[in-house]
Amino acid sequence: MIYRQGAALLSLLGLFLSVYLYLYKLGHVGALACGTGGCETVQTSHWSRFAGVEVALIGVVGYALLLAVALAALRPAAAGRRGPSRLLAALAGGGVLFTAYLTYLELFVIHAICRWCVGSAAIIVALFALAALDLRRLGPATIARAPGAA
Predict the structure, then answer these.
(1) 38, 64, 76, 127: most buried, per Cβ within 10 A?
(2) pTM score, whole prediction
């Protein structure tokens, strides 16, 4: 239960962070509170869009989805089930892969680091770790066999 609560909390934190960055992209936030200038460089680069969609919006949708799954996993009916943790691990794993791609772009293409993006990377990795720990806690999946089957 504690892993799922942590996943819900981290998802909410990631959602707030992504909404902040998306509001910046929409022009509702003047300057990003960053301190290095790297955040603006990253956020205004043409790499801040993926397949025509703002990366910050992808973060908003992704973290909202993770939050919904984590909250659903906290229901008593889902207490001993592996499905919610599998879904959390799969979604967070996809987020980790996407974040690795974005971090590569920051380091080797844009040559600027966004502290907010680093924070999001830490959140998604921690979310993945919590989902993996919850799967480990639940133990291996049992396969239901028909009575009398060998």
Answers:
(1) 127
(2) 0.87
Contact call for residues 4 and 67 (beta carbons, < 8 A): no
The structural architecture, per CATH, of the domain 2-138 is Up-down Bundle (1.20)
Does residue 150 or residue 6 have the better pLDDT?
6
- Alpha-carbon span 60 to 65, nearest angstrom: 9
Per the DSSP assignment, residues forming a β-bridge with 49 are 54
Mean pLDDT of the residues in the chain:
89
- Report the first-to-last Cα separation within the chain, whole angstroms: 35
SS3 at position 144: coil
Contact present, 8 and 70 (Cβ < 8 Å): yes
Residue 142 has pLDDT above 50, yes or no: no
- Please count the other Cβ atoms lying within 10 Å of the Cβ belonging to residue 7: 30
Q: Where are the domains of the chain?
A: 2-138
